């Protein structure tokens, strides 16, 4: 039985704080004062008897209990909203699928699959959300997203989630056509002679890129830019000698068109699985199942385009 002291304001405040990682941001979103939001979270923690947030860092982080509560409370809120909509919008509300898209899947895989879904389920509204990995994972856990399409979540963020791999993809160093390093043989350490654009710390591929640079002797690298956005990265790289380490899927179309080029590295030292993340032990809709199948078919039909192979 639900504790009678738990109110909807407790749930709303908790979920917003977990999603935004900040009490002040959650208070702004909920149109309440920060002291009121802080009091509400404290009340909920007292009712549950456990701390839900680790307050030791600059950003509020969920404790293990907080992650568990977010996963189930968020899903329950989504179910309540759907029940409300079904009752209000009789006889039947249009189906909806909410998908989080990381940059590596947003430029080709997801658009291709979305068009195919529209053919099979024309009544389904596909809502696509882009953003940093931590934000999409938070929204997935609380039920605001049905799935995320992109890189496999880091090891510490997979609790309560399932991951189905679609393909394996390289991370590549991207430059403008005619970059000095494309015209001659070069040593890996020369990468440090040019300005670098690296994934920000919140990106899934950030640690592997840093580890690779460290392995070839480029320690304590200070990048000129941190970015995974195609629009920004493409423009900067095309107008400079910047070397951009990015997932192949983000720049695949540009590489095919010849507006960007890759530098060849020895071996496949950079890369990893791309796939679909969903909440564990949840009922999946017909649209969800259909979309996962479509994503698998799309990835299988375009292996070279997906993984950056020759």
From TrEMBL:
Lineage, top ranks: Bacteria, Pseudomonadati, Pseudomonadota, Alphaproteobacteria, Rhodobacterales
Chain ranges of the HTH lysR-type domain: 6-63
One Gene Ontology CC term in the entry: protein-DNA complex
PANTHER family tied to this protein: LYSR FAMILY TRANSCRIPTIONAL REGULATOR (PTHR30346:SF9), TRANSCRIPTIONAL DUAL REGULATOR HCAR-RELATED (PTHR30346)
Pfam families in the record: HTH_1, LysR_substrate
GO biological process terms, semicolon-separated: 3,4-dihydroxybenzoate catabolic process; positive regulation of DNA-templated transcription
Key word Transcription present: yes
Species of provenance: Donghicola mangrovi
PROSITE patterns in alphabetical order: HTH_LYSR
InterPro entries hit by this protein: LysR_HTH_N, LysR_subst-bd, TF_PcaQ, WH-like_DNA-bd_sf, WH_DNA-bd_sf
GO MF, one annotated term: DNA binding
Family listed: Belongs to the LysR transcriptional regulatory family.
Positions of transmembrane segments: none
Assigned keywords, A-Z: DNA-binding, Transcription, Transcription regulation
Keyword Cell division included in the entry's annotation: no
Name of the molecule in the record: Pca operon transcription factor PcaQ
């Amino acid at each position: 039985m639900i504790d009678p002291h738990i109110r909807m304001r407790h749930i709303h405040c908790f979920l917003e704080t977990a999603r935004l990682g900040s009490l002040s941001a959650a208070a702004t979103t909920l149109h309440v004062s920060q002291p009121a939001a802080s009091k509400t979270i404290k009340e909920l923690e007292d009712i549950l008897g456990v701390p839900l947030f680790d307050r030791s860092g600059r950003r509020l982080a969920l404790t293990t209990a907080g992650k568990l509560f977010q996963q189930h409370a968020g899903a329950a809120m989504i179910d309540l909203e759907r029940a409300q909509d079904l009752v209000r919008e009789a006889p039947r509300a249009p189906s909806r699928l909410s998908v989080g898209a990381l940059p590596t899947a947003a430029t080709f895989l997801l658009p291709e699959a979305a068009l195919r879904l529209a053919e099979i389920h024309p009544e389904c509204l596909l809502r696509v959300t882009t953003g940093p990995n931590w934000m999409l994972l938070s929204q997935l856990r609380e039920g605001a997203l049905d799935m995320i399409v992109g890189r496999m979540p880091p090891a510490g963020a997979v609790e309560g989630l399932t991951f189905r791999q679609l393909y394996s993809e390289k991370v590549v160093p991207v430059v403008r056509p005619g970059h000095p390093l494309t015209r001659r043989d070069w040593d890996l350490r020369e990468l440090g002679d040019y300005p670098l654009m690296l994934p920000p710390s919140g990106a899934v591929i950030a640690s592997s890129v840093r580890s690779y640079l460290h392995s070839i002797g480029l320690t304590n690298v200070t990048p000129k830019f941190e970015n995974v956005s195609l629009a920004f990265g493409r423009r900067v790289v095309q107008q400079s000698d910047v070397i951009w380490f990015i997932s192949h899927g983000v720049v695949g179309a540009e590489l095919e068109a010849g507006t960007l080029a890759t530098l060849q590295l020895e071996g496949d030292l950079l890369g990893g699985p791309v796939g679909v993340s969903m909440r564990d032990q949840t009922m999946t809709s017909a649209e969800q199942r259909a979309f996962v199948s479509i994503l698998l078919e799309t990835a299988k039909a375009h292996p070279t385009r997906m993984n950056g192979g020759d």
